[in-house]
């Protein structure tokens, strides 16, 4: 178990008793309008619930927890001793420390960290300094990190001690290391202390509010499965409205607890945690941060920490659902259900995304599995499938098929459309909707407040992405008569088999319904006669793997038969390969590029 | 009981099957930002839940109910026969009908109606025509209505048949009368039908989206207790953000039912129903509209219609809580609690208001009474009292005292401050906060997105209200160390007794804790020695009125003794007058001006 919460808080963390959570006024700003900024959330939470636990970081050598503002931590299952440390004060100190370090409005501040107080602080503190947060995926190679630091032009790096090796040698910008202790002597804490001293006790009133709500908030880089990563810049306005929408759609509130786990559950470095670092604060909810992948820890928090919400990509859910680290189920589904008073919600990753593209579509099979153990999936952050009254009268499997659709636009998002894709050389194409027939395949496009500001320093990519006055997702989908959209595939993942377009996603969905399949990915493999044919890579369900040991060819035939009963001939896999694992990005997306490389060598 | 839902829908109400809920694009609008507009809510609801019941209008000769969009009504306790009428289509028809009638963007459209489909439609349809909704209080005198019609420059009047007498003879603008039938032949339905024909089936795509989110949304006139009513103009942006905040703060969702009742519960003509006509739609909730005052109907809906939310001013709650029309409690509190699975919430009227000032502060006594019968009060629309964990360990009465404070800023609102009031002749006063000591009295000011745009056609009043770069509420309050504000009084209601400032509200609060007091109001009465002294007007609790019959003087002494045990001498009422009722505005505010007239004649 982890150490108890005993430590001396840094003196700089204790704010003056009369702290006013209000920034310096924008001179001559309008009376009846203020710029939307997710920084508002923490100021309001610190004002209204100063003593409420905001952040718990338990499963580490130096556990910490922070309230929204000021005083003693009141109660928690983790706490043995009272603490005097402070969230909003730390955020204020961070903002001052950045300004002291020369950070100017619009500068980029890079953060390389797993889910931890450092990156949580940064979501608020960096924008409090009017800078742009640039979270970097900790699973990248040093050369990729170097590219992002260079491309973003980051002026300062906040880095977790475990990841200092990712920073290129000889880099010229200041680096602040966090040892993730929260204790006096930690370099990050010293940095915060210096910020506090620099503030000269001017408190929040010494910081200037950003007057432009269209200013940049977060610069996230794509974990690009091909090519150089692109920098997706979001706006303060978009982040505010997405944060509010997520809190509303997930019905988060003061008594909610959000589990924020690295890799296997949504990491904050990925798309700014889909704005949940802000949504939690907006709703006055508690968030638990976990640095490492450990399924027994996850289940421990599910069972004992009152977790009500978490996020994860579909492939992640499979693991959280099915197995512990050593591939054995930790608890039975009955245990889980019996101990949860309210159903846990999960925002699974969606194909039609927030600011830029997000990951894979959840399969009907996965949704059904999650529901069985009392987890209610919802989706964000740009579309959501709204359950309909008539679903009460249909089977779980049927319902899961409806639910696997990507649905309709989220609260505060603008509508989503499926259109005939324009060609890149059209100047000002007028986008035309495909018919809502559930058959015609088009491209998902959207527009409005929650769309990214731009691809940073890449006007050509921005122009292409915004062709036709909409954000082009690159996702292929059909539009159903009821207005819901259903992703067919990423345009590059479609398999052209005998002149027919076979959706790799649709094939995967059918193969996943085979009871012995845990995970499956399908890519095109060249074929002399048909041009391309589908090839399936399969992870067997641990409960059935033994049965097929040494007989993978026979399993392949079994699966092909399963497919033939459900799919048109051109979409049936020609080849089935049983594998122990699938290549994935740090956010759990299957790397089809890697599978294609395997295929190319066959 | 009411008639069953049998009628022929007007053919114009049925939209084409392939309706796309999307307005005409703003040419060259940005990809990553769209103007905030509460019209989005109905378009999204009609798209996502076309078949869900949006509006029920039951207790009338011609009951109707409408879904969010298109098809048959699926189920309801009211429905005996399937309907084919449509909310979003009616709204679309209304927008076209207004445009056909010559309404241009920014024009004012007056609505004179009790809570009914007419005014609900207008909240969406008028802004869909890019016009400004001007709801007029149905309790005003014809001369006052004439003033508002004249001052607002309304270009068209939508009026309920019961209130046509309020419209001045010879007025030159078109008048559309609703007989509140929803049936073919009703002049309002004919007006909608003409709109449909005029649309030439261009549907929503034939309507242009308002490009400016700061454009006017609703123009509400103050029910001014003194002087001419002032026109409070709100913006689309503010209405959108307030609507979202109300839905979030009240935890409304798809299964919520909002009771929208005239006079005794918040009428829509009052401050646009505090944005609830939009919040309900944003949350996909159902709203029930009631035209008339009838407590047994209210209780009937509380018990049988699944009502989860309603709004009402504090004085209104007293009646809803305590008595039926004939002053007898309708059901015991146990009945009510036993039959409600979730606690009903009520947004009581608050002193620190949305766009302009709102009504009276709720007393601790009232809050305690409501809680006893399972009603959980929350407040809106600009501040709210957030309950704190430590309240779990204090008595109901103590807690009610905390809850009676006006609290802190609402979600999406900007912060609220209590400042030393500037004088009118200062040019650009810098507002200074009063100390947070719970004692120093200052004026409540605020700013930001949810503040009104302006006093319509009254730049001088706007200048005064916006002095110091904030909206001045005119409410006097203290600021507590925990950041909550507590209204002391309207500045004009303070009683200067022997040089001391006595808060009429604080006196009322203490007098209301006398178990025989149902309602009480306190005003200043001139006094030779002390300048002014408090005079109390009291309605006795019906259960105790008999006891004091003919002995009001004795009751007065009893109440004075009660006061002396709780209040400083200068704040104790010198006179107590038992009255059968108190003069009130249509929204339930006690008209102290009327009481002062009574006092002046003594």
Automatic annotation (TrEMBL), chains A, B:
Query: What processes does the entry annotate via GO biological process terms?
Result: fatty acid metabolic process
The UniProt record lists the AMP-dependent synthetase/ligase domain at 89-456
Task: Print the keywords alphabetically.
Answer: Fatty acid metabolism, Ligase, Lipid metabolism
A GO molecular-function annotation: ligase activity
What InterPro entries does the record point to?
Answer: AMP-bd_C, AMP-bd_C_sf, AMP-binding_CS, AMP-dep_synth/lig_dom, ANL_N_sf
Report if keyword Lipid metabolism is assigned: yes
A Pfam family: AMP-binding
Q: Where is this region: Disordered?
A: 322-349
- Keyword Lipid metabolism among UniProt keywords: yes
Output the PROSITE patterns linked to this UniProt entry: AMP_BINDING (PS00455)
Regions of biased composition (Polar residues) lie at 322-347
Organism's domain of life? Eukaryota
Domain named AMP-binding enzyme C-terminal: which ranges?
Answer: 507-589
The entry's family comment says: Belongs to the ATP-dependent AMP-binding enzyme family.
Q: Which PANTHER family is this protein grouped with? A: ACYL-ACTIVATING ENZYME, BUTANOATE--COA LIGASE AAE1-RELATED
Q: What is this protein called?
A: Acetyl-CoA synthetase-like protein
Query: Which species expresses this protein natively?
Result: Leucocoprinus birnbaumii
């Amino acid at each position: 178990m982890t150490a108890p919460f005993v430590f001396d808080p840094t003196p700089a963390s204790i704010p003056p008793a009369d702290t006013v959570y209000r920034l310096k006024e924008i001179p001559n700003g309008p009376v009846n309008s203020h710029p939307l900024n997710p920084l508002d959330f923490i100021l309001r939470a610190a004002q209204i619930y100063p003593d409420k636990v905001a952040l718990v970081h338990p499963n580490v050598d130096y556990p910490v927890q922070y309230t929204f503002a000021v005083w003693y931590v009141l109660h928690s299952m983790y706490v043995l001793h009272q603490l005097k440390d402070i969230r909003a004060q730390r955020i204020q100190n961070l903002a001052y420390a950045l300004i002291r370090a020369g950070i100017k409005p619009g500068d980029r501040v890079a953060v390389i960290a797993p889910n931890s107080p450092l990156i949580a602080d940064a979501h608020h503190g960096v924008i409090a300094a009017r800078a742009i947060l640039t979270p970097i995926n900790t699973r990248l190679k040093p050369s990729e990190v170097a590219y992002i630091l260079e491309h973003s032009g980051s002026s300062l790096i906040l880095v977790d001690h475990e990841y200092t090796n990712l920073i290129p040698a000889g880099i010229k910008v200041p680096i602040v290391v966090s040892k993730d202790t929260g204790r006096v002597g930690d370099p990050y804490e010293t940095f915060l202390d210096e910020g506090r001293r620099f503030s000269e006790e001017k408190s929040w009133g010494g910081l200037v509010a950003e007057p432009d709500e269209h200013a940049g908030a977060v610069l996230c880089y794509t974990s690009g499965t091909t090519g150089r990563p692109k920098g997706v810049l979001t706006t303060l306005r978009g982040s505010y409205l997405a944060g509010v929408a997520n809190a509303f759609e997930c019905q988060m509130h003061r008594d909610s607890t959000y589990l924020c786990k690295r890799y296997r559950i949504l990491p904050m470095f990925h798309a700014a945690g889909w704005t949940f670092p802000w949504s939690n604060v907006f709703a006055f909810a508690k968030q638990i941060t976990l640095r490492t992948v450990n399924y027994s820890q996850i289940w421990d928090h599910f069972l004992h920490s009152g977790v009500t919400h978490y996020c994860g990509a579909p492939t992640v859910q499979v693991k959280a659902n099915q197995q512990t680290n050593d591939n054995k189920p930790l608890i039975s589904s009955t245990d889980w259900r019996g101990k949860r008073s309210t159903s846990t919600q999960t925002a699974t990753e969606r194909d039609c995304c927030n600011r830029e593209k997000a990951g894979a579509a959840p399969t009907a099979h996965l949704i059904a599995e999650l529901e069985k153990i009392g987890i209610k999936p919802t989706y964000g952050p740009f579309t959501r499938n709204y359950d309909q009254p008539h679903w009460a009268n249909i089977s779980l499997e049927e319902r899961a098929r409806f639910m696997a659709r990507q649905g309709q636009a989220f609260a505060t998002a603008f509508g989503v459309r499926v259109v005939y894709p324009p060609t890149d050389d059209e100047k000002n194409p007028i986008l035309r909707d495909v018919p809502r027939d559930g058959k015609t395949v088009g491209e998902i496009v959207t527009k409005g407040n929650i769309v990214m500001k731009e691809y940073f320093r890449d006007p050509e990519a921005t122009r292409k992405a915004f062709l036709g006055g909409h954000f082009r997702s690159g996702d292929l989908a059909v539009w159903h008569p009821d207005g819901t959209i259903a992703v067919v595939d990423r345009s590059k993942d479609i398999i052209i088999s005998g002149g027919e377009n076979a959706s790799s996603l649709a094939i995967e969905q059918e193969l996943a319904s085979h009871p012995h399949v845990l995970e499956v990915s399908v890519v095109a493999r060249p074929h002399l006669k048909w041009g391309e044919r589908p090839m399936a890579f399969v992870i067997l369900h641990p409960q059935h793997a033994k049965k097929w040991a040494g007989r993978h060819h026979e399993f392949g035939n079994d699966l092909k038969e399963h497919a033939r009963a459900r799919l048109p001939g051109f979409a049936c896999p020609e080849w089935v390969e049983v594998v122990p694992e699938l290549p994935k990005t740090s956010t759990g997306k299957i790397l089809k590029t890697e599978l294609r490389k395997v295929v190319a060598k066959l």
